[in-house]
Design goal:
Layout (H helix, E strand, L loop, with lengths): L8 E8 L6 E5 L10 E2 L2 E3 L6 H13 L2 E14 L4 E13 L10 E4 L14 H8 L3 E4 L6 H13 L4 E4 L7 H17 L3 E5 L2 H4 L6 E4 L1 H6 L10 E6 L2 H10 L3 E4 L15 H9 L6 E4 L7 H6 L4 E4 L1 H4 L2
Length: 318
């Protein structure tokens, strides 16, 4: 039986990055919980201690480094058969000192893209995904023709977009759709970006994209994860039932909406930031805020538990 929420162990976790963009991982001792697996360093909060204070203390004790700058990455509630944990994860972007395993633990620096969930405790899987995801998620908008699509896409990539969802706003022939997918994938991969297709599962399997995005109707019709772990899977979520379904089938990340009013749906009900935060606390995967978002909302979104923001107008037209 898993532990109750009142018995949940609150842990401060540090995702430490060096100047080369590599992340530090350490190996758990064989005789500990989830022993002999790799993990991100950190430790339990003491009574009355803040997450930041606990992280500073733990990383000094474990690694001998002085934490100077952090930012929130993700919070994870996870139930193991024998214990329940809340991982409060912060990205450590600046520190002093040389990291060493002061308690005898082996350590390694790895590129985030080379981390594999199988080498870590199950609760760490969302951390790995959050590390591999950017903070801005583009949903393609309107375009007049193929050349206009390519121009807008290249401008978005040049501005730093590294994750995009291809969602045509008009009906396309099978050949035109395939051509635009190929253009999107080729241009994006040259920049190290990834492309997800917002389409049916059958249509997705015809193309060489990096992942599939499911709308809420497709999500709720799934009995299990519809694509392999080698591709990214995201879903649109608007309420607790859809969030539970996303958790059940193991999506890699979600778009939660609408957070704020939008030009396309004026007067429609919105989640607001407090409700958004409450739902992110129940997600097993990173969450992008959607609905009325632009770059000015990124910091607030991340403070409210988001991986980042998703948008059409703010990213497609710049």
């Amino acid at each position: 039986m898993s532990g109750s929420s009142s018995e949940r162990v609150h842990v401060a976790v540090g995702v430490i990055l060096n100047d080369d963009g590599e992340v530090l991982i350490t190996r758990r001792a064989k005789d500990t919980h989830q022993g002999d697996l790799w993990e991100f360093p950190g430790g339990k909060l003491e009574t009355g201690e803040s997450v930041q204070a606990a992280l500073v203390r733990e990383l000094k004790e474990e690694l001998g480094i002085q934490v100077q700058e952090t930012e929130p990455l993700i919070r994870i509630h996870h139930d193991y058969p024998d214990k329940s944990v809340l991982l409060d994860v912060r990205r450590v972007s600046r520190f002093q000192g040389t990291a060493r395993g002061r308690e005898g633990q082996p350590l390694r620096w790895l590129e985030p893209g080379k981390l594999t969930a199988q080498d870590f405790p199950a609760a760490n899987a969302p951390i790995i995904k959050a590390l591999q995801l950017p903070h801005e998620y583009l949903i393609t908008g309107k375009f007049s023709d193929r050349d206009d699509f390519i121009r807008r896409l290249q401008a978005a990539l040049d501005s730093g977009i590294r994750l995009l969802q291809f969602r045509p706003r008009t009906e396309l022939s099978e050949q035109a759709y395939a051509d635009l997918v190929e253009q999107a994938v080729n241009l994006s991969r040259r920049c190290g970006a990834r492309v997800l297709l917002n389409t049916s599962i059958d249509e997705f399997e015809k193309h060489d994209a990096d992942g599939l995005h499911m709308n809420s109707d497709v999500l709720m019709a799934c009995e299990q994860r519809p694509i392999g772990e080698d591709k990214w899977l995201s879903a649109s979520v608007h309420n607790e039932a859809e969030l539970a379904q996303a958790n059940n089938i193991g999506v890699d990340f979600i778009m939660l909406s609408p957070v704020l009013p939008t030009q396309s749906h004026p007067g429609a009900p919105t989640l607001g930031w407090d409700r958004f935060y409450a739902l992110t606390e129940k997600s097993f995967s990173p969450v992008f805020a959607l609905g009325g978002m632009d770059a000015s909302h990124l910091e607030q979104a991340r403070e409210k538990g988001a991986q980042g923001i998703a948008a059409i107008t703010a990213f497609w037209s710049r």
